[in-house]
Amino acid sequence: MSGLEPIDWLCKVFDVTRSCYYARRLRRRTPDVERLRLRSRVGELFSQSRSAAGSRSILSLMHEDGEQIGRFKVRSLIRELDLVSKQPGSHAYKRATVERLDIPNTLYRGFDMPAPNQVRCGDITYIWVQGKWHYLAVILDLCTHRIVGWALSEKPDAELMIKALDMAYEQRGRPSGLLFHSDQGIARRLFRQPVVAIPHAPEHEPSKKLLGFAPMERVFRSLKTEWIPTMGYRNAQEAQRDISHFLMPRYNWIRPHQFNDGVAPARAEEKLDVVSGIS
Q1: Nearest partner of 122 among 156, 88, 173, judged by Cα
Q2: Residue 180, H or E segment
Q3: CA distance 26 to 96
Q4: How far is CA 55 from CA 59, 77, 219, 274, in A?
């Protein structure tokens, strides 16, 4: 191969034409501005989710922005950025060992509601704050799984759930005729005391089996695996502020929800065209 220029020699070795070599080199010198923009947006959405969003969630968020992009390209951009979602594995829902057969379960896992303000569910979970457990109560509207009320306290007592119910009642136009679904622990703690202690008490029924209480489990699972810091919060004020940001704007308005075909609960509710006067 004597007499060949180095470029000609390399092209012959790798069986490519000289024109292909120069075209490839030109492409490397000219950045793909559109791809860089999309990659930056993917990184931004991933960061905003605290490393929780996967390709499906990022795709839904980009479609909300009006981007014309497919999941294959989103996956490719995620790989280029070397991003790894911290989504947990599948969750095994436990069944209650004792059932309250004296209390009817009229809902019995019928979670598909045609309109808001018909059926709500609520539960309490624990959050590590300032070196000890605090307790978080959340109220969910089962129509689009929108969070409508919540409260944080040092005690998992009836007052905690009442505060969350109060918030839901005031923020949703003070509706009447609601059915409230909770687990048996909430039933014993809250609704077996005098009803006069519970303002605007909705009709209540307990979930006989925790398997039928999956919507609340999913909310708490998302909160704990996607959002709450591994070491918990330094104080109650920080916890209130950070949890509020996840539950109300992010979970309700931003985070894609599989139950609503990838649409955030509050946005899915807006599309129903059956809600009036609800913010």
Answers
A1: 156
A2: strand 179-183
A3: 66
A4: 6, 9, 20, 32
The two structure tokens encoding residue 217: 């489990």
DSSP state for residue 276 in the 8-state scheme:
-
Residue 229 to residue 221: CA distance in whole angstroms:
13
- Residue reference for tokens 């008490």: 201
Residue with tokens 């019928």: 110
Q: Which residues, 6 or more positions from 97, have their beta carbon under 8 angstroms from its beta carbon?
A: none
Rounded distance between C-alpha atoms, residue 121 and residue 182, angstroms: 6
CA proximity to 275, closest of 39, 160, 117, 111: 117
- Which alpha helices (DSSP H) does the chain contain, by range? 6-13, 18-29, 33-48, 55-64, 71-81, 158-171, 184-190, 214-222, 236-245, 265-270
243-276: b or e for each residue (b if 16 or more CB lie within 10 Å)?
A: beebbbebbbebbbbeebebbbbbbbbeeeeebe
Identify the CA nearest to 102 among candidates 178, 161, 179, 187.
187
**Chain segment 181-239, per-residue pLDDT in tens:** 777 666 555 555 433 344 455 555 555 444 446 888 999 999 999 999 999 999 999 99
pLDDT digits (tens, 9 = 90+) for 38-79: 999 999 999 999 999 999 999 999 998 899 999 999 999 999
Q: How many residues does the chain have?
A: 279
